[in-house]
Backbone:
Protein backbone atom coordinates (compact mmCIF):
# COMPACT_ATOMS: atom_id res chain seq x y z
CA UNK A 1 0.00 0.00 0.00
CA UNK A 2 1.35 3.37 -0.99
CA UNK A 3 1.36 6.32 1.41
CA UNK A 4 0.84 10.04 0.91
CA UNK A 5 4.62 10.42 0.60
CA UNK A 6 4.45 8.64 -2.77
CA UNK A 7 2.30 11.40 -4.29
CA UNK A 8 5.39 13.25 -5.50
CA UNK A 9 6.70 10.26 -7.46
CA UNK A 10 3.21 9.54 -8.84
CA UNK A 11 2.89 13.17 -9.96
CA UNK A 12 6.28 13.07 -11.64
CA UNK A 13 5.33 9.86 -13.45
CA UNK A 14 2.17 11.49 -14.78
CA UNK A 15 4.13 14.50 -16.01
CA UNK A 16 6.39 12.18 -17.98
CA UNK A 17 3.48 10.28 -19.50
CA UNK A 18 3.10 10.76 -23.26
CA UNK A 19 1.05 9.19 -26.04
CA UNK A 20 2.34 8.36 -29.51
CA UNK A 21 0.78 10.20 -32.43
CA UNK A 22 0.40 6.95 -34.36
CA UNK A 23 -1.45 5.03 -31.63
CA UNK A 24 -4.30 2.83 -32.81
CA UNK A 25 -7.95 3.42 -32.08
CA UNK A 26 -8.03 0.48 -29.68
CA UNK A 27 -4.98 1.81 -27.84
CA UNK A 28 -6.55 5.27 -27.59
CA UNK A 29 -9.76 3.76 -26.24
CA UNK A 30 -7.92 1.68 -23.62
CA UNK A 31 -5.82 4.68 -22.60
CA UNK A 32 -8.90 6.86 -22.19
CA UNK A 33 -10.62 4.17 -20.11
CA UNK A 34 -7.61 4.03 -17.81
CA UNK A 35 -7.47 7.82 -17.54
CA UNK A 36 -11.18 8.02 -16.64
CA UNK A 37 -10.62 5.48 -13.86
CA UNK A 38 -7.53 7.40 -12.74
CA UNK A 39 -9.50 10.64 -12.62
CA UNK A 40 -12.23 8.97 -10.56
CA UNK A 41 -9.64 7.66 -8.12
CA UNK A 42 -7.95 11.05 -7.82
CA UNK A 43 -11.29 12.70 -7.03
CA UNK A 44 -11.99 9.97 -4.46
CA UNK A 45 -8.65 10.54 -2.72
CA UNK A 46 -9.14 14.31 -2.93
CA UNK A 47 -12.44 13.97 -1.07
CA UNK A 48 -10.67 11.82 1.52
CA UNK A 49 -8.02 14.47 2.09
CA UNK A 50 -10.71 17.17 2.27
CA UNK A 51 -12.18 15.17 5.16
CA UNK A 52 -8.80 15.22 6.91
CA UNK A 53 -8.45 18.97 6.33
CA UNK A 54 -11.87 19.48 7.91
CA UNK A 55 -11.15 17.15 10.85
CA UNK A 56 -7.81 18.79 11.57
CA UNK A 57 -9.24 22.32 11.34
CA UNK A 58 -6.61 23.48 8.86
CA UNK A 59 -8.92 26.03 7.26
CA UNK A 60 -10.00 27.35 10.65
CA UNK A 61 -6.38 27.78 11.70
CA UNK A 62 -5.88 30.00 8.65
CA UNK A 63 -9.01 32.04 9.39
CA UNK A 64 -10.90 30.64 6.42
CA UNK A 65 -13.79 28.37 5.60
CA UNK A 66 -12.93 24.98 4.16
CA UNK A 67 -14.32 25.96 0.77
CA UNK A 68 -12.24 29.15 0.78
CA UNK A 69 -9.09 27.18 1.57
CA UNK A 70 -9.72 24.79 -1.32
CA UNK A 71 -10.30 27.70 -3.70
CA UNK A 72 -7.06 29.35 -2.59
CA UNK A 73 -5.31 26.03 -3.26
CA UNK A 74 -6.43 26.27 -6.89
CA UNK A 75 -9.79 24.51 -7.11
CA UNK A 76 -12.73 26.08 -8.88
CA UNK A 77 -15.55 27.04 -6.47
CA UNK A 78 -17.92 24.43 -7.93
CA UNK A 79 -15.29 21.69 -7.56
CA UNK A 80 -14.49 22.72 -3.99
CA UNK A 81 -18.17 22.64 -3.01
CA UNK A 82 -18.63 19.25 -4.69
CA UNK A 83 -15.70 17.70 -2.82
CA UNK A 84 -17.08 18.95 0.50
CA UNK A 85 -20.51 17.46 -0.28
CA UNK A 86 -18.95 14.15 -1.32
CA UNK A 87 -16.95 14.01 1.92
CA UNK A 88 -20.11 14.47 3.98
CA UNK A 89 -22.14 11.98 1.91
CA UNK A 90 -19.56 9.19 2.09
CA UNK A 91 -19.71 9.16 5.88
CA UNK A 92 -23.40 8.23 5.71
CA UNK A 93 -23.18 6.01 2.59
CA UNK A 94 -20.30 3.49 2.88
CA UNK A 95 -21.53 1.55 -0.16
CA UNK A 96 -21.20 4.66 -2.28
CA UNK A 97 -17.72 5.26 -0.86
CA UNK A 98 -16.71 1.71 -1.78
CA UNK A 99 -17.72 2.22 -5.42
CA UNK A 100 -15.81 5.50 -5.49
CA UNK A 101 -12.73 3.82 -4.00
CA UNK A 102 -12.74 1.35 -6.91
CA UNK A 103 -12.73 4.20 -9.41
CA UNK A 104 -16.01 2.91 -10.85
CA UNK A 105 -17.96 6.13 -10.46
CA UNK A 106 -17.06 9.75 -11.18
CA UNK A 107 -17.13 12.53 -8.62
CA UNK A 108 -20.05 14.16 -10.45
CA UNK A 109 -22.10 10.96 -10.18
CA UNK A 110 -21.06 10.39 -6.55
CA UNK A 111 -22.26 13.91 -5.77
CA UNK A 112 -25.54 13.37 -7.63
CA UNK A 113 -26.24 10.11 -5.78
CA UNK A 114 -25.38 11.66 -2.41
CA UNK A 115 -27.62 14.67 -3.05
CA UNK A 116 -30.35 12.34 -4.28
CA UNK A 117 -30.37 10.27 -1.11
CA UNK A 118 -30.38 13.45 0.97
CA UNK A 119 -33.27 14.83 -1.08
CA UNK A 120 -35.39 11.74 -0.52
CA UNK A 121 -34.61 11.86 3.19
CA UNK A 122 -35.87 15.45 3.39
CA UNK A 123 -39.14 14.46 1.70
CA UNK A 124 -39.87 11.81 4.32
CA UNK A 125 -41.95 12.78 7.34
CA UNK A 126 -39.81 10.45 9.49
CA UNK A 127 -36.04 9.99 9.35
CA UNK A 128 -35.02 7.22 6.97
CA UNK A 129 -33.73 4.04 8.61
CA UNK A 130 -30.66 2.22 7.34
CA UNK A 131 -32.66 -0.23 5.24
CA UNK A 132 -34.67 2.49 3.50
CA UNK A 133 -31.54 4.57 2.88
CA UNK A 134 -29.75 1.55 1.41
CA UNK A 135 -32.72 0.80 -0.87
CA UNK A 136 -32.71 4.37 -2.18
CA UNK A 137 -28.94 4.28 -2.66
CA UNK A 138 -29.19 0.98 -4.54
CA UNK A 139 -31.90 2.42 -6.78
CA UNK A 140 -29.83 5.48 -7.67
CA UNK A 141 -26.65 3.47 -8.18
CA UNK A 142 -28.51 1.10 -10.50
CA UNK A 143 -29.68 4.16 -12.41
CA UNK A 144 -26.06 5.28 -12.73
CA UNK A 145 -24.80 1.89 -13.94
CA UNK A 146 -27.56 1.88 -16.56
CA UNK A 147 -25.91 4.96 -18.08
CA UNK A 148 -27.78 7.80 -16.36
CA UNK A 149 -26.23 11.26 -16.19
CA UNK A 150 -26.01 13.23 -12.91
CA UNK A 151 -29.06 15.23 -14.04
CA UNK A 152 -30.97 12.00 -14.68
CA UNK A 153 -30.06 10.76 -11.20
CA UNK A 154 -31.38 14.01 -9.73
CA UNK A 155 -34.68 13.60 -11.58
CA UNK A 156 -34.96 10.00 -10.39
CA UNK A 157 -34.34 11.13 -6.81
CA UNK A 158 -37.14 13.67 -7.12
CA UNK A 159 -39.54 10.98 -8.29
CA UNK A 160 -38.51 8.75 -5.39
CA UNK A 161 -38.99 11.71 -3.05
CA UNK A 162 -42.52 12.22 -4.36
CA UNK A 163 -43.26 8.55 -3.74
CA UNK A 164 -41.89 8.69 -0.20
CA UNK A 165 -43.83 11.88 0.59
CA UNK A 166 -47.06 10.31 -0.73
CA UNK A 167 -46.53 7.08 1.21
CA UNK A 168 -45.65 8.67 4.55
CA UNK A 169 -48.31 10.41 6.60
CA UNK A 170 -47.26 14.00 7.11
CA UNK A 171 -44.97 14.19 4.11
CA UNK A 172 -45.36 17.46 2.19
CA UNK A 173 -45.72 17.61 -1.58
CA UNK A 174 -42.71 19.11 -3.33
CA UNK A 175 -44.62 22.27 -4.23
CA UNK A 176 -45.13 23.06 -0.51
CA UNK A 177 -41.90 21.80 1.04
CA UNK A 178 -39.67 24.71 2.07
CA UNK A 179 -36.89 22.33 3.13
CA UNK A 180 -36.13 21.79 -0.57
CA UNK A 181 -35.65 25.49 -1.35
CA UNK A 182 -32.23 26.30 -2.75
CA UNK A 183 -30.55 29.38 -4.18
CA UNK A 184 -27.12 29.18 -5.77
CA UNK A 185 -24.94 31.81 -7.40
CA UNK A 186 -21.64 31.56 -9.24
CA UNK A 187 -19.48 34.06 -11.09
CA UNK A 188 -18.83 33.25 -14.73
CA UNK A 189 -15.72 34.00 -16.75
CA UNK A 190 -16.94 37.52 -17.59
CA UNK A 191 -17.31 38.50 -13.93
CA UNK A 192 -21.11 38.29 -14.07
CA UNK A 193 -23.20 36.56 -11.44
CA UNK A 194 -25.32 33.58 -12.51
CA UNK A 195 -28.18 32.92 -10.09
CA UNK A 196 -30.45 29.88 -9.91
CA UNK A 197 -33.27 29.32 -7.43
CA UNK A 198 -35.52 26.31 -6.80
CA UNK A 199 -38.44 27.44 -4.63
CA UNK A 200 -41.71 26.09 -3.32
CA UNK A 201 -44.91 27.61 -4.70
CA UNK A 202 -45.49 30.18 -1.95
CA UNK A 203 -41.96 31.58 -1.89
CA UNK A 204 -41.68 31.35 -5.67
CA UNK A 205 -44.82 33.43 -6.18
CA UNK A 206 -43.65 36.01 -3.67
CA UNK A 207 -40.28 36.23 -5.39
CA UNK A 208 -41.87 36.62 -8.82
CA UNK A 209 -44.32 39.22 -7.53
CA UNK A 210 -41.54 41.19 -5.82
CA UNK A 211 -39.43 41.23 -8.96
CA UNK A 212 -42.41 42.29 -11.05
CA UNK A 213 -43.32 45.07 -8.60
CA UNK A 214 -39.80 46.49 -8.57
CA UNK A 215 -39.18 46.02 -12.30
CA UNK A 216 -39.00 48.81 -14.84
CA UNK A 217 -42.26 49.90 -16.51
CA UNK A 218 -43.14 47.74 -19.47
CA UNK A 219 -42.38 49.46 -22.77
CA UNK A 220 -45.37 50.12 -25.00
CA UNK A 221 -43.58 48.75 -28.04
CA UNK A 222 -42.63 45.13 -28.39
CA UNK A 223 -38.95 44.53 -27.76
CA UNK A 224 -36.84 41.49 -28.47
CA UNK A 225 -35.33 41.59 -24.97
CA UNK A 226 -38.56 40.27 -23.43
CA UNK A 227 -39.50 39.82 -19.79
CA UNK A 228 -35.99 39.05 -18.55
CA UNK A 229 -34.77 42.51 -19.57
CA UNK A 230 -37.94 44.09 -18.15
CA UNK A 231 -37.28 42.64 -14.67
CA UNK A 232 -33.52 43.23 -14.61
CA UNK A 233 -33.74 46.70 -12.94
CA UNK A 234 -35.38 45.06 -9.91
CA UNK A 235 -32.03 43.42 -9.13
CA UNK A 236 -30.52 46.87 -8.55
CA UNK A 237 -32.53 47.20 -5.36
CA UNK A 238 -31.75 44.07 -3.33
CA UNK A 239 -32.80 45.74 -0.08
CA UNK A 240 -36.19 46.47 -1.57
CA UNK A 241 -36.51 42.84 -2.66
CA UNK A 242 -35.52 41.64 0.82
CA UNK A 243 -38.04 43.90 2.52
CA UNK A 244 -40.81 43.37 0.01
CA UNK A 245 -44.16 42.25 1.38
CA UNK A 246 -46.33 40.53 -1.18
CA UNK A 247 -49.85 42.01 -1.23
CA UNK A 248 -52.61 39.50 -0.54
CA UNK A 249 -54.27 40.34 -3.84
CA UNK A 250 -51.14 39.32 -5.74
CA UNK A 251 -50.14 36.02 -4.19
CA UNK A 252 -52.13 35.24 -1.12
CA UNK A 253 -52.14 31.64 0.07
CA UNK A 254 -54.41 29.62 -2.12
CA UNK A 255 -54.63 32.40 -4.73
CA UNK A 256 -52.57 31.91 -7.89
CA UNK A 257 -50.37 34.86 -8.64
CA UNK A 258 -50.93 36.49 -12.04
CA UNK A 259 -47.16 36.74 -12.39
CA UNK A 260 -46.45 33.09 -11.59
CA UNK A 261 -44.62 31.49 -14.46
CA UNK A 262 -43.24 34.78 -15.81
CA UNK A 263 -39.50 34.22 -16.02
CA UNK A 264 -39.93 30.99 -14.12
CA UNK A 265 -40.88 27.44 -14.87
CA UNK A 266 -42.56 24.63 -13.00
CA UNK A 267 -40.49 21.54 -12.35
CA UNK A 268 -42.31 18.68 -14.09
CA UNK A 269 -44.50 16.73 -11.68
CA UNK A 270 -43.65 18.73 -8.59
CA UNK A 271 -45.41 22.08 -8.86
CA UNK A 272 -42.24 23.86 -7.71
CA UNK A 273 -41.03 27.08 -9.26
CA UNK A 274 -37.55 27.00 -10.74
CA UNK A 275 -35.99 30.35 -11.57
CA UNK A 276 -32.76 30.02 -13.48
CA UNK A 277 -30.46 31.82 -15.81
CA UNK A 278 -30.81 35.11 -13.95
CA UNK A 279 -27.75 37.09 -14.99
CA UNK A 280 -26.74 39.84 -12.55
CA UNK A 281 -23.77 42.16 -12.62
CA UNK A 282 -21.01 41.31 -10.19
CA UNK A 283 -20.96 43.37 -7.00
CA UNK A 284 -17.18 43.57 -7.27
CA UNK A 285 -17.35 45.10 -10.72
CA UNK A 286 -20.45 47.21 -10.15
CA UNK A 287 -20.72 48.61 -6.59
CA UNK A 288 -23.93 50.46 -7.52
CA UNK A 289 -25.96 47.23 -7.34
Residues:
Amino acid sequence: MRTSGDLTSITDSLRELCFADDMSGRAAFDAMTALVTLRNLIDHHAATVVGHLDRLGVARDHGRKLSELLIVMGLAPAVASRLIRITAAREQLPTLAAHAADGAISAEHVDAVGKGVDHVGKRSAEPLDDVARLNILTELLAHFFSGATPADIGKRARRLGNQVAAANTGGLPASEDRNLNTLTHDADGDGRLQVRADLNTEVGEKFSAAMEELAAPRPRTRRLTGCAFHRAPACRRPRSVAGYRCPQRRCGLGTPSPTAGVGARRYPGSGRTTIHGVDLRSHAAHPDL
About this structure: The CA atoms of residues 27 and 33 lie 10 Å apart. The chain has a mean pLDDT of 78. The chain is about 55% helix and 10% strand.
